[in-house]
Structure formats: structure tokens, C-alpha cells
Amino acid sequence: MAVPARTCGASRPGPARTARPWPGCGPQPGPGTRRPTSGSPRPLWLLLPPLLLLPLLAAPGASAYSFPQQHTMQHWARRLEQEVDGVMRIFGGVQQLREIYKDNRNLFEVQENEPQKLVEKVAGDIESLLDRKVQALKRLADAAENFQKAHRWQDNIKEEDIVYYDAKADAELDDPESEDVERGSKASTLRLDFIEDPNFKNKVNYSYAAVQIPTDIYKGSTVILNELNWTEALENVFMENRRQDPTLLWQVFGSATGVTRYYPATPWRAPKKIDLYDVRRRPWYIQGASSPKDMVIIVDVSGSVSGLTLKLMKTSVCEMLDTLSDDDYVNVASFNEKAQPVSCFTHLVQANVRNKKVFKEAVQGMVAKGTTGYKAGFEYAFDQLQNSNITRANCNKMIMMFTDGGEDRVQDVFEKYNWPNRTVRVFTFSVGQHNYDVTPLQWMACANKGYYFEIPSIGAIRINTQEYLDVLGRPMVLAGKEAKQVQWTNVYEDALGLGLVVTGTLPVFNLTQDGPGEKKNQLILGVMGIDVALNDIKRLTPNYTLGANGYVFAIDLNGYVLLHPNLKPQTTNFREPVTLDFLDAELEDENKEEIRRSMIDGNKGHKQIRTLVKSLDERYIDEVTRNYTWVPIRSTNYSLGLVLPPYSTFYLQANLSDQILQVKYFEFLLPSSFESEGHVFIAPREYCKDLNASDNNTEFLKNFIELMEKVTPDSKQCNNFLLHNLILDTGITQQLVERVWRDQDLNTYSLLAVFAATDGGITRVFPNKAAEDWTENPEPFNASFYRRSLDNHGYVFKPPHQDALLRPLELENDTVGILVSTAVELSLGRRTLRPAVVGVKLDLEAWAEKFKVLASNRTHQDQPQKCGPNSHCEMDCEVNNEDLLCVLIDDGGFLVLSNQNHQWDQVGRFFSEVDANLMLALYNNSFYTRKESYDYQAACAPQPPGNLGAAPRGVFVPTVADFLNLAWWTSAAAWSLFQQLLYGLIYHSWFQADPAEAEGSPETRESSCVMKQTQYYFGSVNASYNTIIDCGNCSRLFHAQRLTNTNLLFVVAEKPLCSQCEAGRLLQKETHSDGPEQCELVQRPRYRRGPHICFDYNATEDTSDCGRGASFPPSLGVLVSLQLLLLLGLPPRPQPQVLVHASRRL
Hints:
Blueprint: H1 70-92, H2 94-103, E1 108-112, H3 115-150, E2 163-166, H4 169-174, H5 179-183, E3 188-189, E4 195-197, E5 202-204, E6 210-212, H6 222-231, H7 234-244, E7 251-255, E8 260-263, H8 283-289, E9 293-300, H9 308-321, E10 329-335, E11 339-341, E12 349-350, H10 353-363, H11 374-386, E13 396-403, H12 411-417, E14 424-431, H13 439-446, E15 451-455, H14 461-464, H15 468-472, H16 474-479, E16 487-488, E17 492-493, E18 500-509, E19 524-533, H17 534-538, E20 551-555, E21 561-563, H18 582-585, H19 590-600, E22 605-614, E23 621-632, E24 639-644, E25 650-654, H20 659-666, H21 674-677, E26 679-682, H22 697-708, H23 720-741, E27 751-758, E28 762-766, H24 784-791, E29 796-798, E30 817-828, E31 831-843, H25 844-854, E32 884-890, E33 895-898, H26 916-924, E34 928-940, H27 960-964, H28 966-969, H29 972-987, H30 995-999, E35 1007-1018, E36 1025-1029, E37 1036-1042, E38 1048-1054, E39 1071-1073, H31 1078-1081, H32 1116-1127
Parallel strand pairs: 2-3, 2-6, 9-10, 9-13, 13-14, 14-15
Antiparallel strand pairs: 1-25, 4-5, 6-8, 7-8, 7-19, 10-11, 10-12, 16-18, 17-18, 18-19, 20-21, 20-24, 22-23, 23-24, 26-28, 27-28, 27-31, 29-30, 30-31, 32-33, 32-38, 34-35, 35-39, 36-37, 37-38
Helix pairs in contact: 2-23, 3-7, 9-10, 20-23
């Protein structure tokens, strides 16, 4: 499109444009002088190499100086395409490498990946692995039940009668303020020696088990001592299990009393703050101790509930939510005269991490007002549980009511909704210190198969918000063997440092009877668990035969991934499982939704789809073809999938039986050969058992060479497949150096390096000195350029990565390179595969100058065309760079080359940061498409507290009037306040505290968060056309065209004369986010299936044990004593607490 004719001295039209002469009028600047680099300086005419044989013809121009016409710019684009193609043909060596592979055809075999057979074999191997753990679990559970049944309860048992290894003893001895140090523990605690075991990533002792007891449980209580007594016999079973299966990891018995006995013994990992670990709140224990739950929590927020009592209720609800797993469903409502949900959730929702977070935040906003209306609260709860139009657990149904007390029993509500079948259990919680009659609350619980609890203070919250699991366990115990089914958990972080694990769980039942002819005991003793590290499961999957972009994954009934290359949580929370949905691990689409549903349903299947994938560096999106194959893993709730690109159907397997050839090729790995053959990086793989790993590739290569001098590639301690392929690829890439690279002058074409990377794990960079600036991952399968080249046809440009927050590239001091790579496709008969990627590294500054010349109107190599006052020509990217912007942008929207010298240090940045106006126009004209997604595994710096200088979080602060009022000193509020102050010495973090601070690693500095990611990729426009950025007086013409056989977009545009159109700026960098709106997501929940078993009813259940608490008024004498002690600065030592359910006495 030509602009109107203009004459010299005339200004550009338009009232807002600044008058300035048109380019071509008066003296013209030369093409510019290139800044010196580390390479040899070359005259500008040498930038057009001999291979560009096309005539440099001037494009037809308008009658005056004009914006380049479309066919002119198409001509420039063809010259750019030919230049890139010519360089890659000469230096890339794609064709020559194909010939080398064919010449060495006798040294390798072509093997086939048969997806169905592969996935079935891996599923079978995983099933066998887990089955061995199941057998160990059953032996432990049976033994535990028999040991407890044979145990004789001892009322007079003493601490000195029990000998065991207390896992927290060492940490407590190191802490002079420890309660046990002050009290002087009478138990005979063993002192053990430990040895480092890489399997456990810890120091262990195989001769003993360790015991961990929660901080808020008194170790010397009769219940705990009896528990320690009978569980001691489990140690022999632990050791026998290990003898039968040496691969066993942690074997754990979690008792319903809170005691944990685990094997082998290892010291407890004490956090920097108070240790709040309680096995009964671990994901694996919760899943194994009861069937799935449908829970409605209702909270009394009438006017009588205020101050500390309301704080206690809020904390209690949050603790209650932590007892729920992803198999459960929940809603939370507040009530006074009316009932209403505390959050935006209007029905039961899955108790996953994100939904529970919404509840916890909403609960903090509850305000006390009005009068108590139990009827409104219970009617709301029953309506929630009767709603059958939503997804829910359809198992244990329950209502949890938190209140400070009341007189109404709402019998009419129970008669209407719950009697006579009593399918909904009711649990009532009397919160705070008060003088109300609690009989109605007890009656509600007892009349509805529930339990009544009291929470007078902070110390009672945790224990009383988890005891309800004992009641839910009754039908399981009474079901007997039918309920003895192994369940496998979601992925979660092991508390002892093993990393990500899954756990097989099996409930342990109390087989005793209360007396001769009495009913069977219906208490659950605890849960037995055995850990399986994810790494052990990964070892059963194919390592390198699937290629760089093939992988195995597995999901559970919730759709959460058990295995997936994108399962990489940056931080983990002890209290929550790692729940990454398959559709969040990949870019979601309808095909993947169908695959996920089929896998959850336990079906087999195969499907080829076109889908989008993120690059490894998460900067690019590629549209690719993938084959998905899946089968269920029998005897588990898992399903296994295999993903293969079509080009990974076949792979090479080296067959280097000639030992002389092995030695010859191996010599090319020696650093002494690098000067002539180029530098070699080897992938840091597990080639042999005794090979020492190192993050430094030079050191790793040294370790590898030293080991190879002691063993052969055929040694039994080595992976022969990996070693043979590595040595073969060493020889093949050396032949590429010999045939192509060694005789070429890289400087002629402004190349910094040439390189080849292979599936076998070799990356060869030539010349050797170029390795000093090589920053790509030495593992080709983890290198973004390698994986993208396999997925894309043609030449893939990769500019250096630049963050907008970092300083620009320092071109004066360093030579900056742009990677250009392409896959080598090899056809052997009817079998096609891509075993390698080759490429070149362009000198940025030299190619920027070359780019200007190629996009110019030169008619002679030595002399740029100049336009005088009477000339008829078009602007070009060289002569008119003051008025014309010419750039190459890659498919992710990142700047690759520019004709503007001042933009060279911005190469690699998202183009919107360079020219926001132009990038927005490219997006609006469909040259680019945007893809937004969320990263749920990110880690963020902790937010600074917003209450510095204020009172401690969650602490009720009485007013001056309160202190002056004698009645207040004798009130329940004062009593509860003093309890809070005393307990706060230990449990200060319970009120709205971050559990990660209490239970996390000692050096927790980051927390899990959600990050929003935005990537851009080429849209549907393939044509070349001109258009205008309509911006009034700031309008700009531009032309855009894709370069064939590359991932580049060639853009020519008028330079902006004003910045009035800079309103819209596209963002590409990752930003912190709250994620998608949870209130909208729950309206369209993803498909899932709960466990196929449910034990929520048994006709023989004895519901008479339903809680018999007692409310007591505070003693004025005690209050005065406490106050005096506080004033004297002598805090009283808390009395030993036996926070164990009374019915635990066996």
C-alpha cells in the first residue's frame, strides 16, 4: 500500500504530526558501522554471502518516496527464507547426518514402541509392586489386632515400665524449655545409633521402631502407656516384613489415641516452631479410618457468641475442615434467626484444598448478632444433605453444630428429616466457658447417632474436632473382614523427608469384647500404612525409549495425577495432599476430558488427538499430534496412560558388539579430543549404579570416564541400552564434525557455533571454545530447543531468554547468540523417526546487520540505494531505519532481530515490551493467539504480616472497662482468657496461624501459590498483507508475513511518531493469581468417582456412647491464683493432659 506522493521538505500529513523532512531528502546516513565483537571484524559487503544468488532487484516504487509495497516485502521475505535455509543446509548438516546414520546401519537396530503392550506391561509391574506392599500391610494389620486382643489392660502401669525409642527425645533434650525436660520423663527412652540410608534419604536404625506422640498428649497417661505396651510387639513384624521385601519403606501404625509407631527408627524432624503433627490428621490416616463423608457445618453466630467464643468457633471450624479429604463433600453455614452459607458455595462441594481455603477465609468474616435459632440451622443443613442434584460422596451424612448453648431441642426438625432411620448423624460442640445447660446439646447428639463434645479452650480444639472419626469408624469395625480393604491415597509429602509418596492403608479393628456375652467392641484401633515413593514407581516406566516428548502418567479416581512429568510441586504442605488434576497438568481440551473420564471409569482406550503443549521453559505453545493409550491398574484406584508423538513410534537401539569400535568411539568423549572434534556434553543419566552424579557436567563426564576405565559397557551394573546408545552417538556426531563442520569457516556466515544433540544423550558443540557460552541443558530431553525442534517442522529460532525485570543484554562485553535448530528425520524402510537435532548459533549483531541488508532495495552488493528529491523508490529497512521499523518475531512473540540498533539489547524480550502498539495490532489481526492457564504448583515469597505492632493474632483483648469491672473477673470470659494466655505459650499459632509455619520444614521461606501463565502462539493467519493501526493522528502502516519453514514472523512498520495509542499492552510474564473463580468452578465440577465401598450403617451399632460432658463454673480462688502467678511472672506449669477419649480404656 503506497502513501500519497510527497515532495522534499514537506511534512507528513495530518494536523497532529510533527513536521520533519521525508527520508531521502538531503544527506542520507550510511548503513552504520558494526560494533566490534569477539569475532573478526568484516566489511559490510561480506554480510551477503555467495550462496545468495538471487539478483538484488529494486522493487517497483510509487511516483514518490513510499511505504514498501506488498510484493516488495514478499521479495524481502523470500531472501530471508533463502538465507536461513542456505546456512542451515551448509552448516546444519541435516542431510549429511542422515547419510551417516545409513552408513552405520549395521551398528543399531530399529525398535518399535507398541503402546498397548507397553502400557499393559507397566501397569502390571506397578500392580506387582503395590501387591507386595499389600501383603505386608495385611500381615501387620492382622498381627496388630491379635496383639491388642491378647493384651491385658494395666491400670497401674507406670512410665518406667515402658522402654521405647522416643523419636522426639533428642529434639526435646536440645530444647531446655521443653515440657518433658522440665517435667523429667520417667520412661526408659532408648538412645540409638543411626546410619545414613539413601533409600530413606535419612539416618535410620533397622533394629528398632520409633514412637512419635503429639505435643498435646501426655505421654505418661494410662491409655498411652498401655498403647505403647501392646504395640511394641509390632517391631518384630516390621522387621520380618523387611526381610521378605527389602524394598519396603516406612511401615507405620497410626493409633486412634494419637500414638505413631514407625519402622525403621529415625529421629523426628522437629520444626522450628511447635510440632503440631498428629497422625490422625494425616491424609492417609483420614482416608483409611472412615468412609467418605457428606458434612454440613453450622455455626451459631447469635449475639451471645462474641469475643473469644467466636474466635474459638472459627478456629474449630478450620480444624474440622482439615479432617476432610478429597473424597469428602462439605458446606459451612452460619445461623441466628436465619441460616445462610458463609461463602459463595450454595451446596455441598468437594473438600479439596482450594474449596477449603475459600471456607477458611469466609469463616473469619462471621459476625455475632441476633438470637439463636437452632431450627433454622438444622433445616438448612438437612436441605443441603437431601439435595440429590449435585455431585457428592453419598456415604456418611452428618451435621456438625458449633454453639455456645441453648434450650431448644428442635425435636420436630429431627422427626421431619431424620427419624426413624437416622441416616444423618448429628455432632454437637459446646464452645467456650459458660453456665448454659448443655443437656439439649447432648440430647441432639444422642438422639441422632452422633456425639457431644466440649471445647472450653484452645487446647481442646484439635482433639475434639477429630474424635468424630471414632464414631464414623463403628460401622467399619462391625462389618469385619468386608471392610478390611486396602486403599491407596493421593500423592502427598512424607513427613520424614522421603519426598512425594502414596500410602497403602488398612484399618485395624478392636476385636475384644466388653465382657463375656457382651457386644463386640466397635472401636477402630487405628490405621496401618506402608509408603511407596513415587520415584520407585517411576523406575518401572520406560526411561528413554519414548523419546523426549513421550511419557507415562497415572491418575486416581479424582482425576489427580500420581505420575506425570509436570507433577513438580515447588513447595509442599504437610497437612494437605498434592492434588494436581490431569487437566491442570496439561492444557485442557475436550479430547483430554474424554480421556480423563474413561480412565476414571477404569476403561481401556486409545486415541490420537491434536492438542496444545507448553514448551519446557513455559514460554511457547505448540500444536502437536499425540497418541494416548490407557489401561486401569488392577487392584488399585489408579489408571495408567502412555503418551507418544507419532515420530516416537520407533527408536534406535545400538548394537556395538565390536569392542575395538567401542574403544574408538569412547575416545571422542575424552577432553583431549575436544579441540579438534568439538566439546561434548553428556546427559547426566544413571548409566551405572556406581556412577557419582554431579550438577557440573565437566565433573560428571570426569566421573563417567573414570568409571568406564573400570567397567565395560556390557557390565551387569550398568544400563547397557543407555551406554551403547551414548557411545554410538558419540561416534556418529564425530563423523558429522569430520564430514561437515571441520572444513567450514563459521565466521564467513557470522556463526558462533554449530551443534548436534541426540536421543542417546550427546550434545556436541563446535568449535570447542563455543562451549564456554553454551547454556542449554546437557540432557537433551530437558532442553527446550530439542523438544520444540522435534515437534515443529523447519527451523526453530530461540533468542536468548530475557526477563523484563532484568537489565538488557550486555552486547559490548559479550557475544550474544541466537539458536536455530531443526530435527533430523530418518526414514529406514517404512519406519520414520527423529533421533537427533542439529543447529547453528547466530552472532546477533552480525545477523542484525545482515537482516537490514536482506530487507533492503540494494541493486548492488556494495552500494545501498539512496533516494534523492526526484527519485522514485520505496523505503527499506537499511537506509530508512529512522522511519521504518523492521523486525523478526518468533512464534511466542519474542523479538529475534531488529533493524533498530537500540533494540539489539532487547532481543529475547516479549515484543509488547518493545513496541506495545504494534504487538497489540498483530494480536488483534489474528497473527497471534493467546492461551491462559494456571500453575497450581508455584512457590511465592511469604507475605509480610499486616499487623506489626498490634496485639497477637486471634487474641481477645479486654477493654479498660472490663478490667475495672469485678463481675468480669468472675466471668467465663476472664477464665477463658487466662486459659488462652497459658495455652498460648505453646499453642499461640493455632488462631489463624499458617500451619506451614508450625509443621513445615525448619527453613520454610516460600509458600504454595497459584500463578497465571500467558503464552502466545501463531494464529490462523498465514497470508501476507498490509494493514493500518488506526489511531487517529498516530496511525501506522504495517506489513506482516510468516517466513516459510521457520517459526518467524517478518514485520515492517512505520515508526510511531507519538505515543497516544499506547493504552493497550499485552502481558506475557507470569503473574500471581487467586486462580479461576472457585464459586464458578463448583457449578461445573469435573468428573470424578468416589471409592466404591461405603460403610455408614450397621444394624448392630451401639449408639449409647454419645458424649457426656459437664459444664463447670470457674473458681474465683483459681482465677485469683492464676492472676497472681501471671503478675509475678511465674507462669504455672500446665497439668498433664490426657486428651484421649474416655472410651479408649480397653
